[in-house]
Design goal:
Number of strands: 19
CATH class of the largest domain: Alpha Beta
CATH topology of the largest domain: TIM Barrel
Number of helices: 14
Distance between the termini: 32 Å
Number of domains: 2
Radius of gyration: 21 Å
Structural class: alpha/beta
Strand content: 15-25%
Helix content: 25-40%
CATH superfamily of the largest domain: Copper homeostasis (CutC) domain
Shape: globular
Length: about 425
């Protein structure tokens, strides 16, 4: 949630954890005062069930500093751990304990080995446990899942590239470097008119002063194999096991599997419904305006493995990563031990304008709607299936409803309005 109104919408929709993040930031980093505003809104909202607060500390600003040429330099291990603990203490204090005695601090661990992740988590756990009034704060590790082969097929798509430019997820490169493109061709995504020259892009802060030319390449994910998690080019059981074991050994309370902003923009989510005999494949009907279908990384068996391994180590298991209603309602039924599902894109829609204007459909401009939150909550909270128009009338949807006849289904609109599906 980015503000009080979104927090109220989430609570009224049945959310049990209200997460504070800034959708305009690639890492979701949010100001402490904004977290306090959200806490106040949740405290005042009417609700039938207890609600917890959570927020994250992004890993990128903890791992690196920027050199004059715009490239990243690793910080010392001591500085990484110290800054992580400072950030965790800050967001825990901002959440406070008035809404719930146990706030949740999420810790992104992308770009770390299992040993590095363990050191960061261990220091955070020890710090919040000693803090006056915050000793019940829970620490959740976050592993960003990836499929580098799938990413490679999508990262050069024009709509993906443009969205990444808007998020400033790129770096300067030579014109003949792999994946190079001219930043000036996408300057409108930065709010710059026309085809600006190098000097204009630098003046606007879109290029570092040391850049030579206007060619850039999109930011790449941190490959698991570089950090010893697995030799595979996608998140597999070996990577999951390494991070779960490191999190448990460090004293963390939970672990989340998520996807980075890079993959989210490319419509690559955490869970794949393709090729499963149990999950009905509705991903292939979930297409964007360019016809790009949603794709996923983990199979149902890998999700089950993750949940079972977490529980074997005394951790809560949380799934995120562009989860949609058709995935969530199947997962709640097929993986009953799952502790939490988290989402933003799947519960947000075009902002309503009482003056009749039309909101933009970008990730930044969509807002959380209570009607869509109900599409992610579990069966015991009367969650229901939300069906975007491309899925309506498909044979796959009929199959899903036949398998789960207790599941109420609603057709959605771009503004989050619901109509019962006949």
């Amino acid at each position: 949630m980015f503000g009080p109104q979104e927090a109220r919408e989430a609570v009224l929709g049945g959310a049990r954890i209200i997460d504070s993040e800034d959708p305009r930031s690639a890492l979701g980093t949010i100001k402490p005062r904004r977290i306090m505003d959200i806490a106040d809104a949740v405290l005042a909202a009417r609700r039938a069930l207890p609600v917890q607060l959570s927020t994250n500390i992004g890993e990128d600003q903890l791992l690196f500093r920027r050199a004059d040429n715009g490239l990243a330099l690793a910080k010392s291990a001591y500085e990484q751990v110290g800054k992580a603990a400072q950030a965790a203490l800050g967001v825990a204090l901002a959440m406070g304990t008035r809404v719930h005695p146990c706030g949740i601090v999420k810790v992104g661990l992308d770009g770390m080995t299992a040993d590095q992740a363990g050191e960061v988590l261990r220091e955070i756990v020890a710090t919040v446990r000693r803090a006056d009034g915050l000793s019940a704060t829970r620490v959740m590790a976050v592993l960003f899942a990836q499929d580098l082969d799938l990413w490679d097929t999508r990262k050069t798509l024009p709509q993906v590239r443009r969205a990444l430019v808007g998020l400033r997820e790129y770096q300067p490169c030579a014109p003949d470097a792999p994946g190079a493109f001219d930043l000036a061709d996408h300057a409108d995504a930065l709010g710059l008119p026309g085809l600006p020259e190098e000097a204009a892009l630098k003046a606007a802060g879109a290029l570092p002063d040391a850049a030579r030319g206007t060619h850039v390449a999109v930011t790449e994910p941190f490959p698991h194999d570089r950090y010893g998690l697995t030799r595979a080019r996608r998140t597999d059981r070996a990577a999951i096991r390494a991070m779960v074991e490191a999190s448990a050994a460090a004293g963390a309370d939970a672990i989340m599997l998520d996807t980075s902003i890079l993959l989210k923009v490319a419509r690559i989510g955490l869970v794949s419904t393709a090729g499963s005999t149990e999950l009905v494949d509705l991903d292939r009907h979930d297409t964007d305006a360019h016809g790009l279908a949603r794709a996923g990384i983990l199979t149902l068996d890998e999700v089950r493995y993750f949940v079972d391994l977490c529980h074997a180590h005394g951790l809560e298991a949380n799934l995120a990563g562009s989860l949609q209603s058709h995935q969530a309602q199947q997962l709640w039924r097929l993986v009953p031990g799952l502790d939490q599902l988290s989402a933003r894109g799947g519960v947000s829609a075009l902002a309503r304008d009482p003056e009749g204007g039309t909101g933009r459909a970008t990730r930044h401009d969509r807002t959380v709607q209570r009607s869509l939150v109900r599409g992610l909550v579990p069966p015991e909270q009367h969650g229901h299936l939300l069906v975007p128009p491309p899925m309506a009338g498909t044979e796959d949807l009929a199959t899903l409803l036949k398998r789960h006849p207790d599941l109420p289904a609603y057709l959605t609109t771009p503004h989050g309005d619901l109509t019962p599906l006949a």
